Amino acid sequence: MKKNKNSWIVMGMLVVAVLAGCAVPAAAAEGGYRFASSWGQVGTGDGEFSTPVDVTVYGTGNVYVLESGNPRVQAFTRDGTFVSKWGGPGNGTGQFTDPMGIAVRSDGTVFVADTGNDRVQRFAGNGTFLNGWGTPGTGQSQFSTPRAIGACRGSMLVIDDRIQRFMPDGSFVATWGGAGDGDGRFAHPEGIAVDSARTVFVADTGNDRVQKFLPDGTLVAKWGSNGTGPGEFRSPAGIAVDSAGNVYVADTGNQRIQKFDPNGSFITVWGTGGSGNGEFDTPQGIAVDADGYVYAADTGNIRIQRFAPIVSVVKAVSPETALPTDTNVDGLYDDMNGNGRRDFADVVLFFNSMTWIASNEPMAAFDCNGNTRIDFADVIWLFNNL
Ligand SMILES: [Ca+2]
Ligand SMILES: [Ca+2]
Ligand SMILES: [Ca+2]
């Protein structure tokens, strides 16, 4: 009886809302992003940061944050829980001087562009030093303040004013580029990313553009110029690419993130200057995980921010046949059974179908509590938010 009464109350509220002309908000922007969570504050303790300059993520595994102020790497789970740390100031093995770039390879090993020491260091995912290479200079396997590093199947790419490709053991493979503003030239580039086809994307920071190369260094696309409009940049320092080849740029001077398709067509933008959720202060690093969550090293705000993709393609939650809906258009599908309202039946359905949801639905659409898992905590969240 109580349920029926509540239903009538809800329906009555909807009628009132319709009469007030505000019942149907615009749909959440497909292709857009919503703030999911953040972590970090100034300090030297676990989970605290001093100039977090870059971030990388291993599939659906750990997130690695590189700090230059207190030079070290910290590993976290995707919801920001501290896992481990390594590094420290210096030029000894496993130490860093003003490091600016970090990347994780498909085998889980972590590479750091140890900028001030003009070298690259490679670690196991738990921080154990594996190998390193590089000396100051402009010759083969030498570096002049290498600021970014990219990982792909097989090899590694390091960029200073040019790109050098290496095998993971440090053996030199090839080089291209050099200082300048012409095609295939770079001005103080601070970001590099590689997709699964080994296509290379460079955040050509000083030239306010992105350049895209085939694995052999052939330039195939470039986009951007100085400005604040869509597809324009101000000193973009970070770049990432997802499994579909979409490109994410930390548009540092514009305090925002821009997303492009693999050919440079603008898709979406989010962020503005500030310190609130979804606001930035000179974001320098960016990463995207296998579920499509985007991580930004919000350098000036001394934190990592995580954003969830807003998706419109979801399946009916088995064993129901109606499509779930997002009743309040916040990007979370809270009406699990598709009857148009968030109710106790949705809580029951979530509980009974957790395993199915985890393997069939987009994570970002159903992870109610934002911990990057479909779990009982989401059932509790839904119940508490009826
Ligand atoms: Ca919702
Ligand atoms: Ca429902
Ligand atoms: Ca969850």
Description:
With 386 residues, the protein is mainly beta. It has helices spanning 2-20, 344-352, 354-360, 363-366, 376-384; strands spanning 33-39, 52-57, 63-67, 72-76, 82-87, 101-104, 110-114, 119-123, 129-133, 135-136, 142-143, 148-151, 156-159, 162-166, 172-177, 191-194, 200-204, 209-213, 219-223, 238-241, 247-251, 256-260, 266-270, 285-288, 294-298, 303-309. The strands form seven sheets. It has a four-stranded antiparallel β-sheet with strand order 1-26-25-24, with no helix packed on it. It has a four-stranded antiparallel β-sheet with strand order 2-3-4-5, with no helix packed on it. A four-stranded antiparallel β-sheet has the order 6-7-8-9, with no helix packed on it. α2 packs antiparallel against α5 (376-384). The radius of gyration is 23 Å and the shape is globular. The relative contact order is 0.11. The model is unreliable at 1-27 (pLDDT under 50). One calcium ion binds next to α5. Residues 335-337, 339, 341-343, 345-346 line the site of one calcium ion (CA).
